[in-house]
Write a structure and sequence with these properties.
5-stranded mixed β-sheet; 39% helix; 5-stranded parallel β-sheet; Methyltransferase, Cobalt-precorrin-4 Transmethylase, Domain 2; 3 domains; globular
């Protein structure tokens, strides 16, 4: 990363202190020492690490992390040494989680970080919070970077009702059904995707009748790229070979606004939403909001499709 993108060494938090770890409204609160704190980390630009996050890492007795190598680089950059690191990820969450809860229960301050961004988004951090709450262990979640939220805002699409869908499904059938559901559902959906699969995902999005989308690549990094347009236009503008972190934002319902679908198209959309796990009531609300019919009629139609009966002919 170029020096211009990095936090200046002369402006560390050691020199620019801003109160205590749990200071609110200018008054430092006396928080219990034993607790779990989810700490967001920069998506790429180290200058995005907040003062409160840095202070939490300095104060932590233990740090749970997705990849110890990545976290160690972050700690080294900010001259934080001597912290025990505990791997915590989807493959060991069941065994590592109780150990972290035990540390917090014994009065230790346990900070949890992911490789980048907000812990608990597409990683097991939310499960640790749920377990801490059930066990009566105090916890905090610090505000900070979150890639899909930033991408949705940058897209310029109306984001009331924004849905985060995690990673685009790998299996071709599931991927097509999910993208078709996103295309016909009013509102905006945000997805993470792998550089190895993004080109095929954009082709599938075109076949799924996605009209407008936005792709954000390498957000906050030196080679950041922003692309708007149809899936085909975004694919044409994508730097190849594709590298880095990707967020795909899809504006749903645009296809319905362009031309009213016929009866078969409505049934296809119902089937796609059913395949994506949507309930009959939710499908009726979604399609009615997209201008595809009266909600009561759509509910009856979706119910019949779910039961495997013939489509209605009204």
């Amino acid at each position: 990363m170029p020096e211009s993108m990095r936090w200046p060494r002369s402006s560390t938090v050691a020199e620019v202190r801003m109160g205590g770890l749990f200071e609110r409204d200018g008054v430092e609160a006396s928080a219990p020492s034993g607790r779990i704190v989810l700490v967001p980390t920069p998506l790429g630009n180290l200058g995005d690490l907040t003062l409160r996050a840095l202070e939490t890492l300095r104060a932590a007795d233990a740090i749970a992390c997705e990849d110890t190598r990545v976290t160690r680089k972050l700690l080294t950059r900010f001259e934080i040494a001597g912290k025990p690191l505990y791997p915590y990820h989807e493959h060991n969450a069941r065994t590592a989680g109780p150990k972290l809860l035990a540390l917090a229960g014994a009065g230790k301050l346990v900070a949890m970080v992911s490789d980048a961004g907000m812990p608990g988004v597409s990683d097991p951090g939310s499960g640790l919070i749920a377990a801490a709450r059930e066990a009566g262990i105090p916890f905090d979640v610090l505000p900070g970077p979150c890639a899909f939220v930033s991408a949705a805002v940058i897209s310029g699409f109306p984001i009331i009702g924004l849905r985060f869908a995690g990673f685009v499904p790998r299996a071709a059938g599931e991927r097509h059904a999910a993208l078709q559901a996103a295309a016909c559902t009013a509102g905006v959906s945000a997805w993470y995707e792998s550089p190895r699969r993004i080109e095929q995902t954009l082709r599938d999005a075109e076949h799924a009748k996605v009209v407008r989308c936005f792709l954000l690549r390498e957000y906050t990094k030196f080679h950041e790229q922003r692309l708007w347009g149809s899936p085909r236009e975004v694919l044409a503008g994508l730097t190849t070979p594709v590298r880095g972190e990707l967020v795909l934002v899809i504006e749903g319902g645009a296809a319905a606004a362009q031309e009213p679908p016929d009866s078969e198209a409505v049934d296809a959309r119902i089937d796609a939403l059913l395949a994506a796990g949507e309930g009959v009531s939710a499908i009726a609300r979604t399609l009615a909001a997209a201008g595809l019919g009266e909600r009561r009629t759509l509910y009856a139609r979706a119910a019949r499709r779910k039961e495997g009966s013939s489509p209605s002919r009204d």
